[in-house]
Amino acid sequence: MGRNKPQGRGFRLAMKIWLGVTMFILFFPIAIIILMSFNTSRYGTFPFEFTLQWYEKLFSGSELIASTIFSFWFSLAVSTVSAILGITASLALRRLSQKWNKTFPTLMDVPVIVPWLVQGVSLLLLFNWLGLGRSIVSMFLGNLVAVMPHSFLLTYSRVMTMSPSPEEAGRTLGASGFRVFRDITFRMIFPAVLAGWLMSFVLCFNCFSLQYYLAPFGTYTLPMRIFTLIRSGCEPDINAVATIMCVVTFLAILLLNKIGFSADQLFGRGKKGS
Amino acid sequence: MAEIRIENITKTFGETQVLNNISFQAPDGHFVSLLGPSGCGKTTLLRIIAGLEYADSGRVLVGGKDITAVPVEKRNIGVVFQNYALIPHMTVFHNIAYGLKLRKMDKNEITKRVREYIALVGLEGLEDRKVPQLSGGQQQRVALARALIIQPPILLLDEPLSALDRKIRGEMQYEIRRIQRQTGITTVFVTHDQEEAMTMSDEILLLHNGNVEQMDTPEKLYNNPSSLYASDFLGKANTLDAVLEGEKGAWRVTGNGWSFPVREKEGFAPGQKVCVAIRGEQITMHRKPGEDFFPAKVESVIFTGEVCRIQAGLGGDTLAIACINVDAEGLRPGDEIYLHIPKEKIHYFSR
Ligand SMILES: Nc1ncnc2c1ncn2[C@@H]1O[C@H](COP(=O)(O)OP(=O)(O)O)[C@@H](O)[C@H]1O
Ligand SMILES: [Mg+2]
User: Which of A172, A184, A188 sits opposite B72 (nearest CB)?
Assistant: First the structure.
């Protein structure tokens, strides 16, 4: 195959080295953190001596574990609501006119484009004005605004590219609107919904800036906890938590790939060809 | 089983009028084709009957009952879509069983009935196949079984064979008609293929720009087209400009250097400009002159197996003639021939 390529051997070798360097820069820090989470030394020094003590410490009453659990449930709630809103918005939009079908998805891009830092400030101002201030509700809504576009746009592109005729066939066979949704529509869009849901979860889990702005006093999500701990001198149980997060994220991405979504679609917001 | 009656259906999408006051009737047990070129509104009309689209005005009656305002899922009409529209994550069995499941039928009864219909469409052994593992023809059979199993009073098919290759298409045409006869279900079949419509139908409804051009049996539609459009759409005819001439009882059409006797027709009068439609295979060709024969000059001869296609110069016009091979033996370009066309085979329309 490569025989007809105009580039010479040297060029290809250079590209391979470049790829290697890039991969190294991307993955080396993560590898170090994972390695250090199993290292006995508190300050990350060598020689490497294997230990599980940081995981022990983490699971025996570290503040980190409480925040992790909180972050987990919080992200789960946000991403679930985000997935539901993504489905309902997509299906509603399919019925609307061409004009709305152009405008609305573009509007949904705004929260993706505006930096979270800026969004955090504006949301805080809004919630203060509404009298909600910093609260769980504010934090929930704020994170929802930030992640919803992702599940919406993934679901929406699926809804708009799939053929409506299986659903129509269902209706001619006697299925009510609800049955059509349950038996046909939902099953057809499920991979996109799942992808959007996982994306929302991961993004919400990592959304430090919004949480920092909007969390009520005394509530710590995991990123907030890590932030405060690092400022006051860090313990290697942070490495242990980071490792767990890496593994979970890795599994999520693996799952997404398995159901047919490439990173390109996810982070390019799945708007292929529209 | 029931008759279908369509009354004054009109439909516009935005600015474009797609259906213009369509009325027709399909008697109980008949197989009616909606025939027309792509974009003439066939699918729209079918979707209105199915309830997937609403007409701006007009009524749809099935078995004498007005169902215009009944929602799709309550209409109990079998529909086979152009792209089959099988539910992708369900197996063959579950696709076919879906309509019965929605009717809350007993499980054993469902299994029994699905088997029956799988046998009817000839899909034995494929019950557990997933949709993507089926060929086009097989998907079509599943779609047909799925539509028929709910035992609807009428069946609607939207170009169900257009995605299949030629050989399977012929097979499926036969199968669909066999199943339709066996079940006796009133059927509306959409197609843009005049040959398909002619082979399959009891009656053909010819649509043109959202209007009913003509509705008749295939034979009548072919032999007695009521318009130039109909004569040209069903098996390309020769169309020539001419003028009506002659006394009462002896009308002729006279064109650019030729003239043939024709039957008298209401609403026409000698002196009127007309357009003449003559089918190539209804022209008989002779080597010697005779009464009411008109001389022509052979321009080209093409043998195509069973038939022979001849282009002949008739006065200042050119006629395409089709005849069986033996009749054309030894014919060369430049030869003189004599054409006879029976009066009743010459159709003329105002222009
Ligand atoms: N949902 C729709 N919105 C706007 N125009 C439509 C719609 N459906 C069909 N049309 C138009 O109506 C005309 C007839 O379409 P259709 O019924 O699909 O024709 P056919 O099935 O005979 O090819 C076409 O010009 C098509 O563009
Ligand atoms: Mg069509």
Answer: A172
Q: Is A259 on the interface with B (CB under 8 A)?
A: no
Can you tell me whether residue A176 is helix, strand or coil?
Answer: coil
Q: How many domains does chain A have?
A: 1
Q: Could you tell me the pLDDT band of residue A259, with boundaries at 50, 70 and 90?
A: confident
A137, part of any domain = yes
Terminus-to-terminus CA distance in chain A, angstroms?
A: 32
Which residue stretches of B235-319 are H helix? none
Other C-beta atoms within 10 Å of B70: how many? 15
CATH number at residue A153: 1.10.3720.10
Interface predicted TM-score (ipTM): 0.81
Angle separating helix axes A63-95 and A186-206, nearest 10 degrees:
140
* Predicted TM-score (pTM) of this structure: 0.80
From the CA of B45, give the closest atom in ligand 1.
Answer: 17
In a domain, A256, yes or no: yes
Q: Tell me the β-bridge partners of B295.
A: B338
Average pLDDT over residues B250-263: 86
Ligand 1 pocket residue status of B41, Cβ below 6 Å: yes
Mean pLDDT score, A44-64: 76
If DSSP states are collapsed to H, E and C, what string results for B91-145? EHHHHHHHHHHHCCCCHHHHHHHHHHHHHHCCCCCCCCCEHHHCCHHHHHHHHHH
